[in-house]
Design brief:
Blueprint lengths: L20 H4 L7 H16 L3 H12 L8 H5 L4 H10 L9 H11 L5 H18 L16 H11 L4 H13 L2 H5 L1 H6 L1
């Protein structure tokens, strides 16, 4: 088994024994309570040594149907920083999969009521993964033109939750190691 992992500081505390019932107890609701459960379950998966599962569950929280005024968001804003932290602290012996391909596929295949904004969120995550883990290749069998970071920022600012675009931009800047490298002229225009 994996050595003991530190808790992700960008996720709420959780008992690592949590299981899928943490999410299924919400039924079809994808509200603030579901969002918080997804973040807790992502922490539990991380603590158990399941990096890939942690990212998948984190994504379920990211795609929750939130309005932006939920109390859960005040304490645990959009989980972009948690995604970056998990990618940065992942050890090579644990299965990670290829979240770059996963987010690419999510972005181009997104369906449902909130497909538009969630497609942009998937591209936002794709940018973080590409910056934090440049060793992970894209999908050569599914070539697409990925949107530039400034387009993702503009879409999150227009359609995302209040403050989401700024939190994503800060996380991407940390993942890139150079805030100017991800946005160029946009950094000056938005700052």
């Amino acid at each position: 088994m994996h050595r003991s992992r530190p808790s992700c500081p960008h996720l709420p505390a959780a008992d690592k024994r949590l299981d899928r019932r943490e999410l299924s107890r919400h039924g079809d609701r994808r509200d603030g309570a579901f969002y918080l459960s997804a973040l807790r379950y992502a922490q539990a998966q991380w603590l158990r040594g399941f990096s890939a599962r942690s990212i998948l569950v984190l994504t379920r929280g990211l795609y929750a149907m939130l309005r932006g005024d939920e109390a859960e968001l005040r304490d645990w804003p959009s989980p972009y920083a948690a995604l970056h932290w998990i990618l940065h602290h992942h050890c090579d012996s644990a299965f990670l999969g290829n979240p770059r391909i996963s987010f690419q596929h999510q972005a181009i295949r997104m369906r449902g009521e909130r497909a538009g904004v969630n497609r942009w969120r998937a591209w936002a995550c794709w940018h973080i993964v590409r910056a934090a883990r440049s060793d992970l290749p894209g999908d050569p069998r599914d070539p697409v033109v990925e949107p530039e970071a400034d387009a993702v920022y503009a879409a999150l600012a227009a359609y995302g939750l209040p403050g989401e675009a700024g939190r994503w931009r800060e996380t991407l800047a940390r993942a890139c190691g150079d805030p100017g490298s991800a946005f160029g002229a946009l950094e000056v225009a938005v700052a």
